[in-house]
Fold these 2 entries.
Entry 1:
Amino acid sequence: MTVATFDTGRGLALVCTLALHLSVALPARGQSDAARGDSARSAHGPGSKHSRAPADAGPVGPPDARLPTITLEALLKRANQDPPTVLRARASFRSAQADLDYAQGQWFPALLANGSYGYAYDNRVVLPGVPRIDSESLEARGSVGLEWSVIDGARGARIDQAKASLRAASHTLRSTRQLAMLAAAELFFEARAAREFVLDAQLSLSRRSQQYKATVELVEAGTRSPVDAQRAEIEVTSTQYALELRQSEEHAVLAALAAAIGRGPTELVRPAAGARVARSGATTPSAARELAQAQHPEVSMMEARLATAREAHDVALAERAPTIGVSASASMSYLDVRRGAGISGHQFGAVVSAFVRFAGFDPAVWMKADATGPKVAEAERARAELFHRVGAEAVRAYYAVERARIEQRRAEAMLESAHKARVAQKGRYLAGMSSLLELLDAEDLEQRARLRRIAAKRDAAISVMRLLAACGQLQDAG
């Protein structure tokens, strides 16, 4: 229909053109992130005015699609084995095993063997008036000694102390693995959120670019003020830099994720989509506290350290008691007199004896138990403090999961309302009932709602992983 009034038909045509340029609608709630990324990436052609490249294209830009992907299950398995902190804890565990073998070796008798061979010259005066011996001979000697502590109270205590230290090292390794798995899991969901932030920034850049093109055409037609075009251009520039920042943040998170599983920080991996987060067995705050106090690896580690302190005190007390044992030695020698007086031939000898060794009069030995006793009390207080702390952390983690789920539902509701507001505002703008600033405000509100939903989804997943770790169930999830 043509209306013969001044520029009315031209204005309707420009409004239709603007409607086409602003037709980049918000994807449906169930639409995949890949579809949003494809629509955003098609916004700029190679020759677009605003498709500028950053000055340093190294750290900026989307990660290579050919990067290897890793699932949450595989990630937890790698974090359980390969990070340097886990390898160091495993080496400490092997060292504790060697200490136990050394302590148990004290049950075996000590065997000593000596041997010598040499030339001997004897020019002694045996009696006054008697000529000197003046002899030369070749002599070979050998001896074997055996010593065994039959009754040693400190020996059994040392073995028990080594066993307790081995249990402590085992629980320390388990605790280190859980911390490594938790750190990797958090970075896994951080990386997924970073990818969604990048796709959201691409979507915003696509919309801002379309708005700028449409506004320029309206300004050229004389229906809009040049200020609108300047404002739209500023929004495009700001959104372009925001996209670059999001891409740089994604690279940083992917580098941290690679390092968390023992890879080099430049050997990037991408988190796989569709990761399912395991559910915790803690259905109430009381259940979370009980699970933490029963299964948390730090509790078991502290129990083992307390046992180690007690055994060390027992060792100090046992060292005050005497040690009773037996010893035996045998010797053999052969003398070959080459010149002078002497007796050539073999000689044998053997001695068997019992011994009592008592170091109780040594002040250092007697006062050692006075030093180890307070350490036992300190370890007991540390265990009680840790027992209370892990229970409180589990309860706090339980409520953090509740808050994260509420925040996720809230973000979903806010995004739905913001989307409706943006659609309505766009209709008002197309009808000429509102300004570009009002449309931009509505789109900013919707974008903030999208970002909040992404962050809420990430925080909900991380809170569940932290609850699993607080209850000592993270290794079961992996």
Note: DSSP finds eleven helices and six strands in the chain.
Entry 2:
Amino acid sequence: MPDIDKLIEKMKRQPNGIRFQELKRVLEYYGYKQYILRMFLKE
């Protein structure tokens, strides 16, 4: 959890400096795994 908190703080400070892996990690932590899959598997 401390890593997630650090990533969220980084997102607040540097919204343009976020890597996709960081965003994915935070979203998965909060239960958005299905959303991520749908976002990239759209036809």
Note: The chain has a mean pLDDT of 82.
